[in-house]
Predict the structure.
Amino acid sequence: MSLLIEVLAKIILLVIGVLAVYRFSRHNRALRLTSVHYWLLIFFGIFTWMNWGGFHDEANNGSIVHEWDQYHYTISSKYFTELGYDGLYVATAEAAREEGGHEPPRIRDLRSGYVVDAPALAAHQQEVRSRFGEARWAAFKRDLEEFEVNPSVYLDHGYNAPPTLTAILRILTTAIPVNGMSKVFYALLDIVFILAAILMIRWAFGMNAAAQCALLFGISFLARYFWNGGSILRYDWFFAITSAVCLLRKDRLILAGIALCYACAIRVFPVYLALPVFAYFLVNGKEHGVKSAVRFGTAMAASGTILVLFGVLNNGRGTDAYYQLYEKLSLHDNIPPPNNVGVKTFFITSSENMKGELVNEHSIYETNTITEDIIEKAKSNTIWIYLFQFLFAGLSIWLGTRAGDASTALMVGFVGVFGATALTCYYWATLALLPLLSISHGLRIGLVANLAMYLWAAVALFLPVLGVVDKFNGALVFVPCAAIILWALVRTSQLAVFNEPGDMAMVFSPRKDSKLA
């Protein structure tokens, strides 16, 4: 499926969805559905995310497999002992050289984050090669043959998974041979995680919420299949966070703590979701609340200890991997990719970057000038960055104290995530969970937010043609998207916490003759 057809189809669906929602709300009516109708909506939502069976665009042959992303996660985890966080690209280039293949002219130095001429990394390339024994090197080269590694791949930002996730990935990648079948299997695993998350929502919140969340997930702009659909274990964190929300809804505090801890261990940022949950327990529960906080916190601490220990034992580099991760995340935080979203985005993006004046004429992946500009802007706005991180974290904790239940408290934690981090765009698949904050408003806000992002991206493509900006680049799209996300999160949290009546009726409701009624 072509990118143009995908985007146009989803814009049309979003326009229809927004108009339908407002029509029902205006007449204070709801669409009466049976159980079959709800399941069809869930299927349609997930099928839409998969581009109705078209999966990736024509440039990737419409494959279910994300070759680029699976190369990073499969190869890096299987050979993490030798590659670490700095060796993937130079080792791949060395393997290509030995086999007489195409050597890239430019490579991102994963130690510094800058793109450099390949010969400048010759010493580092040989150092990484020396980490391999002959048998492991032969196996590494064999596995590389299963992936299409083009010159642009060498300009990406490398492998950034925490050691705990690496240890989990290694269970799969070391046990299963790398081939076409295993790549399809890995691609299907994430679809299973997404479906499992929707089933958890059905269990805890009902079919109405499950259908709404599935529709928002399918129509997502920020988490389209294009980004990392068809990779390996790229949505286990989504399942874990969703499970934590659902388990809190059902007052299963120990299991909720374990689920949220798993998400923290494999992606780090979900730790901010725990803060308003503890605030809710401590402020609203009195003596019972303290016990709830202890149960939830103990479950997180115990499972976290086990996960970190497992990460140490099975990541291939022991405790050193955690120190290396800290250095990697510090580098990644200072030199974020152009598709990152969060409050920090506003303070590290210059007007020159927005206008495309810093885009390299040879490749959008040549980002050295943009990197230097981001670092300079971050330095000049350090105080503002820290201030807003503190304010957003405080706002999420305060909202947590005002929440009606623990699951709502966890959801408002995304306000703190937005303020404290600059996540790569696909992590905002969590906007699909807005109906769990407000069943009558979440779908409307989610549809409007996604429609606004799609329309802005479409407009941004034409701005260089109209002479408004010099060149198209990621910042031009994702800085406005960050503002849209902020509105969606704060507005839905406000409605959920303060129970504003508004003018919206339930979009869907069970028919009276339905088993769900």
Summary: The radius of gyration is 23 Å. The longest strand covers residues 31-33.
